Amino acid sequence: MAFNLRTHLQFFIGLIISAAAIYLSLRKIDLNALWAALQSVNFLFFIPAVAGQLTCFFLKGAGWRYLLLPAKKNLRVISTTTVLIIGLMVNNLLPAKMGELARGYLMGEREKLPKTLCLSTVAVEHLLDILILTIFLIILLPFVSLPPWLRTSGMLVGLAATGMIVMLFIVMRREEKFLGWIYRLLQFLPGRFQKKIQAILNNIFQGLRVVTGRYIFYASAAILLMWVIAFGVAYLVLVACGLFLPFQAAVMVIVFAAFGKIIPSSPGAIGTFHYLVLLVVMSFQVTREAALGYAIILHALTFLIETSLGIALVFAGNISLGKITRQVEESP
User: Which of 62, 11, 20, 22 is nearest to 299 (CA)?
Assistant: First the structure.
C-alpha cells in the first residue's frame, strides 16, 4: 500500500515536471522551422547509430555482469544484457523508475540470487555511470559555454556520486565494524524484525562488496567504453540532423541527458530529456528549432530501440512482466 502511494505521488510529480519541461522546450518555437528541421534528417546515419546503440546494451550488460560475479561466477553476459534491456523498456513505459526495481527482481528470479543483492549492484552501476560522466564533464567544461546553472548542477550531481563511491569504499573496507554497529541498534526491535532486516542488510552488503575487489575495475572499463560509443551515437544523430558540431557537443548531450534521468519525470523522461538536450545544443550557437528537432530525433531513436527490443525479449523469454511489477509493488 505504501509503495502504491509512493509510486502514484512520484508519478504525478514527474508528470508536473515533464509538463513544465515540455512547455519550456516549446516556448518561442517556430513550428514551421521545427517541422523543416525534422524533415531534413538523413536517416542513413541511423544504421551505424542503431548498431552503436546495440553495442552499448552489450557493454552495459557486461559491466553489470562483472558487478554480479562475486555473487555468481557462471553468470552469462546474455542474461544481464537481456534483463538490462527489459528494465530500460519498463522505465520507458511505467512510472517511478520501476525499471530499476524490475531489473533487480527479474535478475533474482532468473539467476536464483537475492533480489536485494541484485538491486545493490544496480545502484553501484549507476554511481559508476555518473562518476565516469563527471570525469568527461570536468575535462570538457572549459571548452563549452553552458548556462551557469546547468554547469553548476552537473558538477553537483557528479561530485555527489563521487562522494558516495568514496563513502561506499570506506564503509566496505570496515564492513564488519559497520554491520556490528547496525546490529546493536537493531537489538531494540522485536526478534522477527531483527532477522528480516539483518538478512536484507547481508544481501545488500554482499552486492556492495564488489567496490573493494578487482571486478569493479573490469566493470568500470566496460561502462567507460559503453559511454564512449554512446557519445558516438549522439554525434551520428547530430550529423543526421545536419548539425556539424564539435564532438564535445555530443558528449555534453549524453552527460546531461544521463544526469537528467535523476529528475522525476514521466515515463521515458519525456520533456526533461528534450529540455536538457535543447539547452546543451543551443549553447553551440544552434537555433532553438534545430536543437529541439535533434532532441526529438535522438529521444525517439533510443526510446524505440529500447522499447521494441525489450518487448520482443519479454515475449521471446515468456516472461511475465505483470508478475515482476506486482512483486515490486508488494515489496516494503
Answer: 22
